[in-house]
C-alpha cells in the first residue's frame, strides 16, 4: 500500500472522551507505520468540507479492521460522519498562533491581533489540552495588563454569535460564583422587568456546583429555547430565564473554562474577559456584578475583590459596557435551599412574600435589583432599593415571574425529594464557621443537580446559638444510596459546620 | 445496584493512548450514573496493591458489556491486570501538590519540599496533561531563580534510580540538541576511555530528531543492556554506549519532556534540572556540555547561550557536579550523514582516520574530548586538544571503540539504503543558509530514524561556491514511497538550502 494513501473507512465505536477529539487507528495501518506513532500524536482528520484535529489512539485489537478508522463521539459529530464514510488523515500543520502563546510564556505583551489568532485557533479545535493549559497559565498571575484584558475581551465578544435587541438599554447581572444557594437571578429578573427594564437573561447549568440558575429555573419552566422563542418571550415580557448553552455566545470561553476548572485557578484576566465578553455578546449595556467575598468563596479577600472591581469597571468602559460592582458577604450560603428544587422553593417563597421566606436571599436580590434600576437610569440614585422592594412586596414581581414562565411554555411547582435525613448538632455552642465548598459537595453527593429535588435545607446561620440535638440541616435525595453517600461524607468531615 | 459498589470486571480493549492513562466505562455503569460524567473526568482505578489515576472515557457501544471496565494499554500494564480481574474505581482525592503549582502560577517562589511533592505526584501519575502543562509553563520564562532550579534538580536526582561506580572521577558529555548529524558522542567516548577515563555513556533515542545517539550506535552494536551487563562492560572497557531508556534515571524528566515537546518550549530552569539531574543520577562527576548556537538550532543567540552557561555552571556546583560549557557553532549540520546508519558511517570514517572523514565532526569531537581530559585533571590545561587528537590519530580510539562494541555483544558495519536520489542545485551562487529544522524534517520523511539506513548525505557547507547542477545532497530511503514523501516536502520548501 502506498505510504501517502491516507484514506480510511469510518467505523462507529461509541466512545465519549470528554476532553479532546480522539481518532482511533490500527497499529498496522499504513499511515501509522510509515510515520511512526510518536510523530502522529495529533493529526488532521477531514471529510470535505470539514476537518478537525484529533489525538491519535492506536488500536491493536479487532475493534477496528484493517482500513478502518474510528472517532470519539464528539469528534464524529463535528465532522458529521456516518458509518462507512471515507475519511482522510494528514499531518497536522504547525499551529502558527502557538508562537504567540510562547511569547506570552516568555513574559511578552500580546496585541489584539495575537489574541485574535489564538482564539480563532482554539475555536477551530487546533489546541490540545496541553496548549490550552499553557495559554491559561501564561495569562494568569497578573501577567495580562488592562490593554491585554480589553483586547482579549473584544476578541472573545466577536468569536461567536452576538445578539442585538434594538433597544438602547439592556440590563444584566452576574455573580462571581462560589456561594451555595445564592439564587438571586430569577428574583432580580422578575423585579426589574416588572419595573419595565429589559433583561434577556441567559444562565448556565451547574459545572461544579450543586445548581446553576438554569437548573433551578428548569424545575419551574422550560429553559431550552430557540433564538426565535427567546426573542418572542423577551419582546412580550421584557425578560426571560433561559439556558445560555445553545446561544453560542463567546464560545471560546466554554473551552477555556473547562481547563481553568481542571487547574482550579481563576486567572483575573481570563475571568474578566469571560464574564464581560458573554455579557457584551448577549447585547447587554448595563451590568451589575455581585462579588461575594469569603474565605471559602471564589474571591477570598476584600483586597482581591477591590482589584477585580477596578479592573472590571475599566475593561467594561473600554468595551462599551456600563459595569457596577457590588461586593457582598460571602462567608456562608444564601437562603435555605441548596439544589435546584430547594432553591426554586426559596425563590417562590420570596416572590410570594411568605413570612418563612429567607430574608438574606430577599435582601441580596433587592440590593442587586435596586443597583440595576439606578445604573440603567430608570430611578434616581439612592432610590433603587426602595423601588425594588416595592415591586417585590406589591406582588408585581411574582406576577411577572409567572408570566415569563408561562411565556416560556409552563409554570410548574417544585416537588420535594422522597428521602430525607435530618442532621443534628452534636454539641451546644455558637455557630462559628460554614465551609461553602464542603456544604456544596454534600449537596452534590445527595444527587444535586442531576436529581433536581436533591440537596440540602440549611436552617442555621453564622453566629446562631445552637443547642445540642437541634437540626442543623436536612439532606434530600432520590435514592437511599445517595443519602448514604452524603452521610458518609458528612461523617468523614467534621468541619462542614463548626460550633464552638 | 448500590451506588457505592464500585467493582468492575476488566476487559482488554487494545488501545494505546500515548499520553494519559484512560479508563473506559459504560454510560449505564452505576458509578457513572450516580456521580455524573462531568464529575468523573479523572478517577482512581485500583487493583491491590497498585492504583493509578485515569481519565474517564464513556462507552455507549457493546465494546464493553454491563459490569465491564477497560483500560488503555499503558494503564493496564501499570496496574498489572489480566482479563477478568476485578478492579475498584473511586473518586480522585484532591492532589495536594497542585496547591504549589498554583502558588507558582501566582509568581511565588517554591522551596525544595514543594518541588519534592510536585515531582512525587507527577511520578505517581496523578497529574493530567493539563496539570503538567501548567507546571511547566509556570516555571518557564525565567520564573525560577537559581535556588529553585537547584532544588528542582536535587529532587529530580533522587526521584529515580541512581548509579554508583565506586570511582572518584566519572566523566560525561551532553549536547543541548538541535543540530542534525552532530554525532560526537561515540567519538568522545572512544577517545577519553582510550585515554583511561571512565565514561559510562547512556544516550537517548530520537524523540523529534532523525537520529539519537542510541539509534546510531544500535546500527553498530547492541544498546539495550541490563544494569548488570552495563556494569560488566564498563568495568572491562572503562566505557559503554547504551540506551538510557531502561535505566530509570530521573524518570520525572521523561514525563516533563513530552509536554515540553508538545509546547515546543525549553524552559531554562527545566532544561538545566533535566540535564544535570540525569548526569548526577548516572553517577557522573565531571561533565562537558556542548551548546550549539544558531538561528535554527535549539539555542538561538549567544546571549541565551551565555546565560545558560552561567546558570548551568552555578547549579552544577550546587549539586556537586563539575560542569564545563562549550559554546559551538550551530549554524549548519555537522558531518555528512543525517540518519542512524549514515551518521554511523561518519563516526567510523573519523575513527579510521580516512581522508574522506568529515573534518567538522572530527574537530568538534576532539575539542569536546580535550575539554573532558582537562576538566577531569587527566591532562593539564591547554593540552587536552592535542592529546585527544593523538589518541584518535594513533588508532587507539578506533581499537577502543571496537572493543566496547564487542563487549556489548557485536560490532556490525552500517549498510546503505536501497533507494537513493540526488538533489542538485537549481542555480549557481554562494551557499547562504541551511535550515537545520527543515533538513531534519526531510531526513525524517525519508524514514529516519525508524528505517536505520534512511536519511540524508549532505555534501555542501555554508559559504561554498555552488555551480548549477552540482549535487547538494542525496536522499536515502528503504521504500520508493518514502523517497517520494521526502521529495514532495523538498519541492514544497525552497528554503531548506538557500543559494544566493
TrEMBL record, chains A, B:
NCBIfam families recorded: ARCH_P_rylase (TIGR02645), PRK04350.1 (NF003338)
HAMAP family: Thymid_phosp_2 (MF_00703)
EC number: 2.4.2.4
Top EC class of this enzyme: transferase
Residues of the Pyrimidine nucleoside phosphorylase C-terminal domain: 430-497
Record PROSITE patterns: THYMID_PHOSPHORYLASE
Name of the protein this chain belongs to: thymidine phosphorylase
Gene3D superfamilies: 1.20.970.50, 2.40.40.20, Nucleoside phosphorylase/phosphoribosyltransferase catalytic domain, Pyrimidine nucleoside phosphorylase-like, C-terminal domain
Reactions listed under catalytic activity: thymidine + phosphate = 2-deoxy-alpha-D-ribose 1-phosphate + thymine
GO biological process: pyrimidine nucleobase metabolic process; pyrimidine nucleoside metabolic process
Keywords tagged on the record: Glycosyltransferase, Transferase
InterPro entries (UniProt xref): Glycosyl_Trfase_fam3, Glycosyl_Trfase_fam3_N_dom, Glycosyl_Trfase_fam3_N_dom_sf, Nuc_phospho_transferase, PYNP-like_C_sf, PYNP_C, Pyrmidine_PPase_CS, Thym_Pase_Put
Domain of life assignment: Bacteria
SUPFAM superfamilies listed in its UniProt record: Nucleoside phosphorylase/phosphoribosyltransferase catalytic domain, Nucleoside phosphorylase/phosphoribosyltransferase N-terminal domain, Pyrimidine nucleoside phosphorylase C-terminal domain
Amino acid at each position: 500500500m502506498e505510504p501517502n494513501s491516507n484514506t480510511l473507512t469510518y467505523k462507529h465505536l461509541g466512545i465519549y472522551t470528554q476532553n479532546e477529539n480522539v481518532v482511533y487507528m490500527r497499529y498496522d495501518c499504513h499511515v501509522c507505520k510509515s510515520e511512526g506513532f510518536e510523530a502522529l500524536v495529533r493529526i488532521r482528520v477531514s471529510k470535505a468540507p470539514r476537518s478537525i484535529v484529533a489525538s491519535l489512539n492506536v488500536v491493536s485489537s479487532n475493534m477496528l479492521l484493517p482500513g478502518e478508522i474510528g472517532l470519539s463521539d464528539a469528534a464524529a459529530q463535528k465532522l458529521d460522519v456516518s458509518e462507512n464514510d471515507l475519511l482522510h488523515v494528514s499531518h497536522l500543520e504547525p499551529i502558527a498562533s502557538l508562537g504567540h502563546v510562547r511569547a506570552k510564556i516568555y513574559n511578552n505583551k500580546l496585541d489584539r491581533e495575537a489574541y485574535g489568532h489564538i482564539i480563532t485557533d482554539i475555536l477551530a479545535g487546533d489546541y490540545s489540552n496541553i496548549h490550552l493549559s499553557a495559554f491559561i497559565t501564561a495569562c494568569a498571575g497578573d501577567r495580562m495588563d488592562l490593554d491585554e484584558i480589553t483586547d482579549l475581551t473584544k476578541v472573545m465578544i466577536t468569536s461567536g454569535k452576538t445578539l442585538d435587541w434594538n433597544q438602547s438599554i439592556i440590563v444584566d447581572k452576574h455573580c462571581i460564583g462560589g456561594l451555595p444557594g445564592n439564587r438571586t437571578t430569577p428574583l432580580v429578573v422578575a423585579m426589574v422587568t416588572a419595573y419595565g427594564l429589559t433583561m434577556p437573561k441567559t444562565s448556565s447549568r451547574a459545572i461544579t456546583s450543586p445548581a446553576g440558575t438554569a437548573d433551578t429555573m428548569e424545575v419551574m419552566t422550560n429553559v431550552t429555547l430557540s433564538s426565535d422563542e427567546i426573542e418572542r418571550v423577551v419582546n412580550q415580557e421584557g425578560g426571560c430565564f433561559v439556558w445560555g448553552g445553545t446561544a453560542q455566545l463567546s464560545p471560546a470561553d466554554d473551552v477555556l473554562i473547562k481547563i481553568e476548572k481542571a487547574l482550579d485557578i481563576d486567572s483575573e484576566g481570563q475571568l474578566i474577559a469571560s464574564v464581560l465578553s458573554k455579557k457584551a455578546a448577549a447585547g447587554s449595556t448595563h451590568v451589575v456584578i455581585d462579588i461575594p467575598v469569603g474565605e471559602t468563596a471564589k474571591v477570598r479577600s476584600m483586597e482581591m475583590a477591590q482589584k477585580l472591581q477596578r479592573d472590571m469597571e475599566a475593561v467594561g468602559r473600554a468595551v462599551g459596557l456600563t459595569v457596577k460592582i457590588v461586593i457582598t458577604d460571602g462567608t456562608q450560603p444564601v437562603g435555605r435551599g441548596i439544589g435546584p428544587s430547594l432553591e426554586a422553593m426559596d425563590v417562590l417563597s420570596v416572590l410570594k412574600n411568605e413570612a418563612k421566606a429567607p430574608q438574606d436571599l430577599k435582601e441580596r436580590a433587592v440590593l442587586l435589583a435596586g443597583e440595576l434600576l439606578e445604573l440603567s437610569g430608570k430611578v434616581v440614585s439612592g432610590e433603587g432599593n426602595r423601588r425594588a422592594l416595592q415591586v417585590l412586596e406589591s406582588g408585581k414581581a411574582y406576577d411577572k415571574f409567572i408570566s415569563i414562565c408561562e411565556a416560556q411554555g409552563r409554570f410548574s411547582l417544585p416537588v420535594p425529594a422522597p428521602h430525607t435525613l435530618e442532621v443534628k448538632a452534636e454539641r451546644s455552642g455558637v455557630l462559628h464557621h460554614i465551609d461553602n465548598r464542603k456544604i456544596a459537595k454534600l449537596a452534590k453527593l445527595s444527587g444535586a443537580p442531576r436529581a433536581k429535588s436533591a440537596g440540602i435545607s440549611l436552617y442555621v446561620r453564622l453566629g446562631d446559638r445552637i443547642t445540642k440535638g437541634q437540626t442543623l440541616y436536612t439532606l434530600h435525595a432520590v435514592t437511599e444510596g445517595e443519602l448514604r453517600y452524603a452521610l458518609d461524607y458528612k461523617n468523614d468531615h467534621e468541619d462542614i459546620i463548626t460550633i464552638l
